[in-house]
Amino acid sequence: MEIVHLTDEHKQLYFCCLEDWSEEATKEAGLRRELWYEKMKARGLRVLLAKDDGGEIGGMIQYVPIEHSVVDGKDLYFIYCIWVHGHRQGRGNFQKRGMGKALLQAAENDARELGAKGMAAWGILLPFWMKASWFRKQGYIKADRDGMAVLLWKLFADSAQPPRWFKRKRKPQTTPGKVTVTAFVNGWCMGQNLAYERAKRAAAELGDRVLFREIDTFERDVLTEWGHADALFIDRKQVRTGPPPSYEKIRRLISKRVRRL
Ligand SMILES: CC(C)(COP(=O)(O)OP(=O)(O)OC[C@H]1O[C@@H](n2cnc3c(N)ncnc32)[C@H](O)[C@@H]1OP(=O)(O)O)[C@@H](O)C(=O)NCCC(=O)NCCS
User: Domains of the chain (ranges plus CATH)?
Assistant: First the structure.
């Protein structure tokens, strides 16, 4: 196995999170991830890929100076996500063969060389998706918690300060006589971009009684103003977007609200 930096050859694969077999990932999620990548490169984004012995890409990790990430912190690097392809479709299941561990180790070495005082990551307490327990097993400790979402970190220097979640500050406004669908979207996550695209499409198809509002949280001041990087609200009620709900589900939830107007 080999860990390599992202090059032009594998960019399209990275934009769809290695899921080149999936229409959702390659088409429905749109181009936002690609646009995000182009802007974030200038802010120090790093992407590593894991290649198996046959040269097949099976895993990826993306991390950035925490000052440009979706969490609060200083002098650390923040891991947006690590993903070892685990689906049977497409390139197949590469999990539990050491790729995850190798990617994390390589990212930590890279961050140390870049002068970081530590590495931060997020995970959830439930036993699926990006699990906090996996990072704990790799030597990470808890720094902050927001419901099921945990921020973890590993110190490289004693003077490092722990990362923090931004506090949720405001709920979106509603509009009299209409249903307001508010989508916060950052761009880093293909799954969240998918939820955003579905909500936008459903809102448009439901006509004049639905108002769609996009809040692009790429810039830090917008992110800190609201405290949400990616989130979906139908009026003031938040809809869970991890994993992304189907188009049908989002449309059903908005329609239900329209009927109550
Ligand atoms: C977590 C993940 C990165 C681990 O990568 P991997 O290549 O499967 O793991 P590795 O083979 O490197 O295993 C490293 C260690 O983790 C353990 N491990 C791997 N998968 C595990 C699992 N599902 N549960 C618990 N432990 C696990 C291994 O046993 C190994 O332990 P060891 O160090 O004691 O030997 C990978 O399973 C993954 O991508 N999961 C989904 C993560 C996700 O949802 N990402 C967000 C996408 S948006």
Answer: 2-155 (3.40.630.30), 179-259 (3.40.30.10)
